[in-house]
Amino acid sequence: MEGLFIRSVAAVALSAAIAARAYKRLSLDLSGAILGFLVMAIHIAAGYRFGALLLVFFFTSSKLTKIGQEKKRLLEEDFKEGGQRNWVQVLANSAIATVLVVVVSAMTRGHGMCLDTKKSDVVTALIGGIIGHYACCNGDTWSSEIGILSKAQPLLVTNFKIVRRGTNGAVTLDGLLAAAAAGFVVGLSYVVTALLTAECASDVAWRQLLVIPIATAAGLLGSLIDSFLGATLQFSGYCNVRKKVVSKRGPTVSRISGMSILDNNAVNAVSVLLTTVLTAFACLYIF
Question: Which GO terms of the cellular component aspect does the record hold (predicted)?
Answer without folding.
Answer: membrane
